[in-house]
Design a protein that fits this description.
Blueprint: E1 30-37, H1 42-55, E2 59-66, E3 74-82, E4 95-100, H2 103-107, E5 113-122, H3 129-132, H4 142-150, E6 154-157, H5 159-165, H6 172-180, H7 189-199, H8 205-218
Length: 219
């Protein structure tokens, strides 16, 4: 009887998957950068954003930097929302949306914006101390500079004028939030209004709801 030679099968090594490095961001994180001058209400604006997107079910992170705000220093906020956000800080050149309350404060951060970024600027010039002392010149043509690089993604509105027509120029920040809300059609108007009411005293509700509505129509 002929012996059959047994073939011993070598065990097949399964490919070991290398542990996937947790990426810092999930690809769906939206980066919003706010810039302005102390006293313009940028902090309230960022708080409204936080309230809206948190209640819309997003993970949010924000970081505020206050200059010499009482002397008209710059105030900036990094604001991020998404499925999961791991850091409050936006990387240089990674801003999706710039909301700026003043021309010069917009120009300071132009290099932070993605080529596809959208920009909303308040039509206001606030001269810093160096300009008032004659040590520097306020830059001209800021709107044109932005449009040169970002084309139709640049929007400029006069928040002060709209707020003044409503009876209180201090509501300009909420006018800007109203205009800015147009960038996020997935969030209902009622959600923005609810956030505004939740952050302000009842006596300020009527003015600021009207400011939001007029800003929303201005864009």
């Amino acid at each position: 009887m002929k012996k059959t030679k047994k073939t011993i099968k070598k065990p097949v090594k399964k490919a070991i998957k290398k542990p996937v490095k947790k990426v810092q961001e999930d690809g769906k994180t939206v980066n919003i950068f706010l810039s302005g001058v102390g006293g313009q209400g940028t902090i309230l604006a960022s708080n409204i954003l936080a309230e809206v997107f948190f209640k819309a079910g997003y993970d949010i992170k924000k970081s505020e930097v206050h200059g010499m705000a009482q002397r008209g220093g710059d105030v900036t906020t990094h604001f991020r929302f998404g499925k999961k956000v791991y850091s409050p800080l936006i990387k240089y050149g990674d801003v999706d949306f710039l909301l700026s309350f003043e021309f010069l404060e917009a120009l300071r951060y132009i290099n932070w914006i993605k080529p596809t970024g959208k920009i909303l600027i308040n039509k206001q010039e606030i001269y810093p101390p160096a300009v008032n002392l004659g040590m520097a010149q306020y830059p001209g043509g800021v709107e044109e500079i932005f449009k040169k690089f970002f084309k139709e993604n640049v929007y400029v509105i006069n928040g002060q004028e709209i707020a003044r027509n409503l009876g209180n120029v201090q509501a300009a920040n909420v006018v800007l939030i109203g205009a800015f809300s147009n960038f996020f059609p997935e969030v209902k108007e009622e959600q923005w209004i609810e956030a505004i009411k939740g952050l302000l005293a009842p006596k300020l509700h009527d003015l600021n709801v009207r400011a939001f509505t007029e800003g929303r129509k201005a864009l």
